Amino acid sequence: MSTSALSATDLEDALQAVLKQGSLVAEDGSHVVDGLEPRFIATPYSAAELAAVLACANEHGAAIIPWGAGSNMMLGNVPERYDVALSTARLDRVIEYEPADLVVTVEAGLTLAKLQALLNKHGQFLPIEGPLDATIGGLLAVGHGGPSQQAYGRPRDWLLGCRIALADGTIVHTGGRVVKNVAGYDLSRMMVGSLGTLGVIVEVTLKVASLPAREELLLNTHADKIEACDAIRAGALRGLALRAACVLENKAAYWLSGPASAVERTRRELYEAHDGETERMDAEAGVQFGGALAVHDASDLEFRATVPPSKTAPTLQEFEACSRVLSLGIESACYPTVGIVLAWLSHGDVNAYASFIEQTRRAAVDAGGSLVVTRAPTDLKARLDVWGETSALSLMRSLKQEFDPKSILNPGRYVGSI
Amino acid sequence: MSSSGLPGVAVVQCHPDMSAAKPDTRSLDKGTIRLLERAVGKNAVLWRPEEVLAFEYDGTIERAMPQAVAFPDSAEQVAAVVGIALDAGLPVVPRGAGTGLSGGAVAALGGVVVALTRMKRILEIDAEDQLAVVEPGVVNLDLSKAAAPHGLYFAPDPSSQRACTLGGNVAENAGGPHCLAYGVTTNHVIGLEVVTPAGDIVEFGGRTSDTPGYDLRGLFVGSEGTLGIATKITLRLLRRPEATRTLLAIFDSVDQASAAVSAIIGGGIVPSALEMIDHHVISAVVQAMDVGYPADAGAVLLIEVDGLLDAVAEQALEMRDVCLAEGAREVRQADEAAEREKLWAGRKGAISALGRLAPNYYVLDGVVPRTKLPAVLRDIYRLGEEYGFPIANVFHAGDGNLHPNVLFDERKPGETQRVLEVGAAIMRLCVDAGGTITGEHGVGLEKRGYMDWIFSEEDIAAMAKVKAAFGSTDLYNPCKMFPTGKGCGEVSQAKIEHVMKQAGPDAYI
Question: What's the domain range around B41?
Answer without folding.
Answer: 12-117+459-507
